[in-house]
């Protein structure tokens, strides 16, 4: 089906906020018009929301995404990732208000499995929303439902961004790619396959996760970029490779923008409540099932759930949780701390560069960026990187490493001070992610400045003896 028209959708917004293209380099979002499988007329963003687009939202008062200060992600023409489903929904509602449209989502009194508020999609409204997974698939294939990819039935590595070399990408891109460097389909939509997952508006897994479509740069096989494949993630979560684009029905036109309407907009500020019952036993059955559910709901595309890596056979979320608990129990380390590091460093093995360079496993695929040489199995000689034959060996090494005296000393204060020693520089996104994991899985506050001292009680099981 041919594109009917493309038009500028946010010129009124740019005029209101005072951000000129000439002075700030901001370009208005463009919408592509097509008719879906139900013969409904829809506008869809030409590209995923980029940092250029998202910057307008942030300047107006919106919350920054998790990787806002991460230079390798925060590039004007790259898709915004590190946004939860709730964050993306807030952007949709704000954008609707800016254009004088009715907001598509309303908050309810309900909470989801992980304790986050549930937003309801209002039917038949004119405002922006996230696409349904069926709409996304139809749009991605430009209506040609017999195809597997936007360009046809056969995968073409040159047309998308994925981890094709299992360790480094043989392309001009590193991690995310500029949105318009990706394939443009027959509807005129860019970046609709690979590069970043897209949040969708419909639930999956018994109303515990939201659907994701499109595949990402972390895909280890072309099957994960096909139209038949979909992933999912809990709505309160985010990752290095999850972004979004907006759609809205073609019905009516934007009304005049009023300053008092915009001034009254209440932006989303992130999670605010804890689970009703906080966990304290990090080796018990309740914790094991909670961690299992968290891994299954948030990281279904973890590389260890999908393929054998060296001597590590494919493993499931429950086996992963049990392994972490058993290794950490032997070393008096909190298994949630180990899980948090894996999540904050590598999206729990879902994205390529962090997956094999700076997580506790240091996977051994060729890494040309490792200035100290390729990883080796033997003990660290000082000039080589370390790799591990399986997860247990890697987790064991991590636990022993985290029990060094310099970490004990740092853990006597707060997480902020501890992370400066552990990471070696200020990494707000690292602390943000770690705090969210403790919040979601255990229902406890472990934040940069809370508690003010004894951060070690959330890291070491024998903290009282170490103080």
Question: Keyphrases for this structure?
Answer:
single chain; 467 residues; 10 strands; paralog of FGE (formylglycine-generating enzyme); alpha+beta; 31% helix; 2 domains; four-stranded antiparallel β-sheet; 16 helices
Could you characterize what this model shows?
- There is one protein chain.
- The chain has 467 residues and is of the alpha+beta class.
- 31% of the residues lie in helices and 10% in strands.
- The protein contains 16 helices and 10 strands.
- It has a 4-stranded antiparallel beta sheet with strand order 1-2-3-10, with no helix packed on it.
- Strand 2 (30-35) and strand 3 (41-45) form a beta hairpin.
- Helix 9 runs parallel beside helix 12.
- It is globular and about 65 Å long.
SSE inventory with pairings:
Layout (H helix, E strand, L loop, with lengths): L5 E3 L2 H7 L3 H4 L5 E6 L5 E5 L5 H9 L25 H14 L6 E7 L5 E5 L11 H8 L56 E8 L4 E5 L17 E3 L8 E2 L3 E3 L9 H5 L21 H14 L4 H4 L10 H15 L3 H12 L5 H5 L34 H12 L2 H7 L3 H8 L5 H15 L20 H4 L1
Parallel strand pairs: 6-9
Antiparallel strand pairs: 1-2, 2-3, 3-10, 4-5, 6-7, 7-8
Helix pairs in contact: 7-9, 9-10, 9-12, 10-15, 13-14
């Amino acid at each position: 089906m041919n594109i009917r028209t493309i038009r500028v959708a946010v010129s009124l917004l740019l005029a209101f906020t005072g951000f000129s293209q000439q002075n700030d380099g901001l370009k208005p979002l463009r919408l592509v018009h097509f008719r879906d499988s139900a013969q409904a007329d829809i506008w869809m963003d030409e590209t995923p929301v980029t940092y250029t687009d998202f910057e307008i939202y942030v300047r107006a008062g919106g919350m920054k995404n998790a990787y806002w200060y991460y230079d390798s992600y925060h590039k004007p023409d790259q898709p915004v990732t590190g946004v939860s489903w709730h964050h993306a929904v807030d952007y949709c509602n704000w954008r609707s208000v800016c254009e004088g449209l009715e907001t598509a989502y309303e908050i309810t009194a309900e909470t989801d499995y992980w304790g986050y508020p549930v937003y309801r999609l209002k039917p038949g409204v004119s405002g922006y929303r996230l696409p349904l997974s069926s709409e996304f698939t139809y749009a991605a294939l430009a209506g040609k439902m017999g195809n597997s990819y936007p360009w046809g039935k056969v995968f073409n590595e040159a047309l998308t961004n994925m981890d094709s070399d299992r360790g480094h990408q043989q392309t001009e891109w590193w991690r995310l790619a500029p949105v318009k460097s990706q394939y443009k389909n027959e509807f005129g939509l860019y970046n609709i396959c690979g590069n970043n997952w897209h949040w969708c508006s419909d639930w999956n897994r018994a109303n515990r996760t939201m659907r994701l479509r499109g595949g990402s740069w972390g895909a280890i096989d072309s099957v994960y970029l096909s139209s038949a494949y979909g992933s999912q993630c809990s709505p309160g979560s985010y990752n290095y490779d999850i972004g979004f684009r907006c759609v809205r029905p073609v019905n009516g036109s934007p009304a005049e923008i009023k300053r008092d309407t915009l001034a009254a907009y209440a932006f989303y500020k992130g999670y605010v409540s804890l689970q009703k019952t906080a966990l304290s036993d990090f080796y018990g059955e309740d914790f094991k099932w909670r961690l299992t559910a968290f891994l299954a709901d948030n990281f279904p595309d973890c590389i260890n759930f999908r393929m054998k890596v060296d001597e590590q056979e494919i493993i499931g979320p429950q086996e992963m949780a049990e392994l972490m608990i058993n290794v950490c129990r032997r070393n008096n380390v909190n298994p949630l701390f180990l899980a948090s590091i894996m999540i904050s460093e590598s999206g729990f093995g879902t994205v390529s560069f962090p997956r094999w360079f700076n997580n506790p496993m240091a996977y051994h695929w060729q890494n040309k960026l490792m200035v100290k040489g390729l990883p080796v199995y033997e003990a660290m000689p000082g000039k080589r990187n370390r790799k591990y034959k399986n997860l247990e060996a890697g987790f064991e090494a991590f636990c022993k490493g985290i029990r060094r005296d310099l970490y004990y000393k740092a853990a006597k204060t707060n997480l902020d001070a501890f992370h400066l020693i552990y990471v070696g520089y200020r990494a707000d996104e690292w602390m943000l992610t770690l705090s969210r994991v403790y919040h979601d899985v255990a229902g406890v506050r472990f934040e940069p400045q809370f508690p003010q001292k004894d951060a070690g009680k959330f890291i070491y099981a024998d903290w009282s003896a170490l103080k």
